[in-house]
Amino acid sequence: MLLNLLVGLPVMLLCLVMEAIFVTLCLRYYANHYKRFKDSGRSHKTLALDILLLGMVMLLMLLGNFAQMIIWAALFMLIGEFEEVATAMYYSAVNFATLGYGDIVMSERWRLLGPLEAANGILMFGVSTAVMTAAVMDVIKHNIARLQQSQQP
Predict the structure, then answer these.
(1) Based on CB atoms within 10 Å of each CB, which residue in 35, 44, 60, 91 is the most buried?
(2) With contact defined as beta carbons under 8 Å apart, do 71 and 59 qualify?
(3) How far is CA 47 from CA 7, 43, 53, 116, 119, in A?
(4) Which residue ranges run through the membrane (predicted)?
């Protein structure tokens, strides 16, 4: 069990750092594009811009989660649990998404890595959801403000 923690916790830490990077990139991308559009002199955001910004935030967060699944799969390959990359990726994705199909299991020596990845995955999906929710709320807030300004005499 201790070996699993010594191997799994640094990977979890790496994933936390990666998630922080992807969150920062998403927030900067969103803020920069919104500011650039606002500074262009247009009085309101367009539907296309809302879709583009939200789509980019979702895409970046999803890519961040995929990158973390790849890191876990690489760990499984490195410790010799799987011979095929596809199997390691499948197992990683099932754990990260907390599906837990159980059709593929790791050896008794490394089986605690599965729940560690699941704990990591559920946390990262929660963070990703929070970032996307914040972006959606910002779009809603700006659209409400735009509508209120257009209704004033």
Answers:
(1) 91
(2) no
(3) 46, 13, 10, 41, 37
(4) 6-30, 51-79, 118-140
pTM of the model: 0.85
Per-residue pLDDT of 120-151, as tens digits, reads 999 999 999 999 999 899 888 888 887 888 78
Report residue 104: phi and psi, to 5°.
-125, 130
Task: Tell me the CA distances in angstroms from 78 to 82, 87, 95, 130, one per residue in order.
Answer: 9, 13, 17, 32
CB count, 10 Å around CB of 129? Answer: 11
**Residue 79 contacts residue 146 (beta carbons within 8 Å):** no
Q: Is 100 left (phi over 0), alpha (psi -120 to 50) or beta?
A: left
- Cα atoms in the 13 Å half-sphere on the side-chain side of 67: 16
